[in-house]
Specification:
The structure is a single chain. With about 400 residues, the chain is an alpha/beta fold. It folds into 2 domains: about 5-170, VC0802-like; about 190-235 and about 260-394, Rossmann fold. Helices cover about 35% and strands about 25% of the residues. It has 11 helices and 14 strands. The longest helix has 18 residues, at about 125-140. The protein is elongated. The protein starts with a helix and ends with a strand. The relative contact order is 0.12. The structure holds S-adenosylmethionine. S-adenosylmethionine binds near residues 188, 190, 275, 277 and 330.
Length: about 400
């Protein structure tokens, strides 16, 4: 007799009563510090580890991280960590995990394998051993292998580092940068999590006016609006944990209500996006509409003809944040450098008093002495190494 859904739910409840979940927020290199600062505010027990942030909590914490983490990539629930120098060891330990309460009556799983400095290195073999062990556990407790679910396969991560294997349940699904508002893009869009990270590093919410002169599909402006109003970045989407038998529907409603209570209504900013390409400006407007921004305007304009002194009053604090046209992805390298040079001169001529954070593949092309650099960091966007230059126009 297979386990009934009620029996699975009972086991899940018991498991959750008896275990704090070992949760890991995956964060891309370069965003660890802003992610840690954000998470610590909600979860004081969180600790930074290579590749992300670890914490203990319950399912509400898992859901809250999915909903509210602005800079993380995905949320994992670590199920077990063990020594796996041989395939029988891998099988034995994997079979001991209570898969039935994680997967219920469907063992429709997608195993993602990664390894470093480990004896087991055949991805296909590792994956099939993990799958066999999950099936064996399912039949141990009277479950059949089950049919595919409507929600699609549950993603399990098997990560081997120095012969230690960690098995994790992916609680997120599509990457967290997929907020749900950006259904269309121009060329070379910036990841939403990176845009948010740069804005947080530049303390964008402290400014009165924020401008992206090369706004493309509007990501930076939209993220600035969501950040300033404390809108949970995941509010337009769902997460894979919601289809686990572990999950109780009240959790998501409660987390969404709590996030809504923390919306910031007081500070109003002007957020302006410009792009030379009208069709891209139309895309930006559509994305902003889906994101329900309240402070963003987009206009078609050439960044080189904007008079930046006209975009704010002398009293206002102004911040320019932009992802400049890249070499390789948007134009030739020398073309990208030329645009960066012309943009610097335009800023130097008309942008006195503005602070800036620009993303470029050509940091060496920074030459205008009116632009004072405060800091530079390196990140990877869409597989391309980029530099973010933070500074002030004298
Ligand atoms: C790297 S993309 C920006 C991508 C954007 N951050 C996003 O997430 O979609 C650079 C943008 O600069 C625009 N562009 C190129 N030259 C320009 C100029 N002189 N003035 C304004 N926009 C320009 C391009 O049309 C393109 O959309």
């Amino acid at each position: 007799m297979p386990l009934s859904p009620r029996a699975v739910a009972r086991r899940a409840k018991k498991y959750l009563r008896e275990h704090a979940l070992d949760i890991f927020l995956v964060v891309q290199p370069g965003l660890e510090n802003v992610a840690r600062d954000e998470i610590i505010q909600h979860f004081p027990n969180a600790v930074q580890e290579p590749g992300g942030i670890a914490l203990h909590g319950d399912l509400s914490a898992v859901y809250e991280l999915n909903l509210c983490s602005r800079f993380g990539t995905r949320v994992l629930i670590r199920l077990a960590t063990f020594l796996a120098q041989t395939y029988p060891m891998l099988y034995h330990h994997t079979r001991r995990v209570p898969w039935e309460i994680l997967l219920g009556n469907s063992q429709d799983v997608d195993i993602r394998v990664s390894f470093s400095k480990s004896r087991l290195r055949n991805k296909a073999h590792i994956s099939s051993v993990v799958l066999d062990a999950i099936s064996a556990r399912a039949s141990d407790v009277g479950l059949s292998r089950g049919d595919p679910t409507e929600a699609g396969p549950t993603r399990i991560q098997a990560r081997l580092v120095r012969d230690r294997c960690t098995l994790s349940l992916d609680a997120t699904g599509a990457h967290l940068h997929k907020r749900g508002y950006r259904l269309a893009t121009g060329r070379a869009p910036i990841r939403e999590t990176i845009a948010a990270g740069i804005l947080a590093m530049a303390r964008s919410s402290d400014y009165d006016v924020l401008v992206d002169p090369f706004c493309g599909s509007g990501t930076i402006c939209i993220e600035a609006d969501l950040l300033a109003r404390n809108v949970p970045p995941g509010c337009l989407r769902t997460f894979s944990i919601e289809s686990s038998p572990l999950f109780a529907p009240g959790i998501s409603a409660h987390a969404r209500r709590a996030a809504a209570a923390k919306l910031a209504h007081s500070h109003r900013q002007r957020i302006l996006g410009f792009d030379i390409d009208e069709s891209v400006v139309a895309i930006a407007r559509e994305n902003a509409g889906r994101a329900r921004t309240t402070m963003v305007e987009f206009h078609a304009s050439d960044a080189m003809s904007i008079d930046y002194s006209m975009l704010k009053s002398p009293r206002d604090r102004g911040l320019i944040v932009s992802n400049l046209p890249y070499g390789e992805r948007l134009s030739t390298k020398s073309g990208a450098e030329e645009i960066f040079r012309r943009f610097q001169h335009r800023l130097g001529e008309t942008g006195s008093g503005w602070d800036f954070a620009v993303v470029t593949t050509s940091p060496d092309a920074l030459e205008d002495t009116r632009l004072a650099v405060r800091d530079q960091i390196r990140l990877v966007n869409g597989g391309l190494p980029v530099t973010v230059i933070f500074g002030h126009v004298e």
